[in-house]
Design goal:
The chain is an alpha+beta fold and 202 residues long. It has helices at residues 3-25, 80-97, 118-126, 139-146, 189-199; strands at residues 37-44, 50-52, 57-58, 68-73, 105-110, 133-136, 153-158, 161-166, 170-173, 178-183. Strands 1-10-9-4-5-6-2-3 form an 8-stranded mixed sheet, with helices on one face. Helix 3 links the parallel strand 5 (105-110) and strand 6.
Length: 202
């Protein structure tokens, strides 16, 4: 074998060895979120003042120092709201069982203040587990939170009363009180279990 060929083979062997070493040492790239939409830049939540199920006034400061899953609904909702809250609770449970340290708190904001008093909200949110938070307030106060977030809600008359049309997205709020990302429906437990640990480490 002539000298130039031997040098080329030696260089190729060295490059192969370096590539193998990097493959063994470098951690695998994290998988991207499957379903969540991540904002290019997290957006601070608007200022608001709402009442929780214990009758306490709450502001956007409640979203600081922890991750939160924010959902807008109402207690008379026949299907989407209870299904979404049950899905989020199940995702919380699976994340806890898998050893995830940071478990986001579920926050329900009722868009039906006429029927959803603090007492009604407290009983309702309790059906989905412990540690969840429910808020409501007069319509103008709700609009202060929902409109900047492009959350829709509207009262719709029925023959025997009324219902509420509303957005069904779930927002993920980061520990600085910023709108970080969102999940669109239909909501599935596995989507939250897969994406939340990734989102909370971006």
């Amino acid at each position: 074998m002539n000298k130039p060929v031997a040098i080329v083979l030696l260089v190729l062997a060295m490059l192969t060895g370096i590539g193998l070493a990097l493959t063994l040492v470098a951690p695998p790239a994290p998988s991207p979120p499957q379903t969540a939409t991540v904002l290019p830049e997290p957006a601070p939540l608007p200022e608001f003042s709402l009442t929780d199920s214990a009758g306490n006034e709450r502001s956007r400061d409640l979203f600081r120092d922890g991750w939160h899953l924010l959902f807008f609904g109402f207690t008379h909702c026949p299907d989407i709201c209870p299904m979404t809250l049950a899905t989020l609770s199940s995702a919380q449970r699976e994340l806890t069982e898998s050893g995830v340290e940071r478990i986001p708190q579920i926050v329900l904001v009722s868009v039906d203040p006429e029927r959803d008093t603090p007492e009604v909200l407290g009983e309702y949110i309790g059906h989905f587990g412990d540690g969840h938070l429910a808020l409501t307030g007069p319509e103008p106060a709700l609009r202060e939170l929902t409109e900047p977030l492009h959350i829709y809600f509207n009262k719709v008359a029925l023959e025997d009363g009324y219902t509420m049309d509303h957005s069904s997205v779930v927002l993920l709020v980061d520990p600085e009180g910023r709108f970080h990302s969102l999940f669109s429906g239909p909501h599935i437990v596995d989507n939250f279990v897969h994406d939340l640990p990734i989102l909370m480490n971006l």
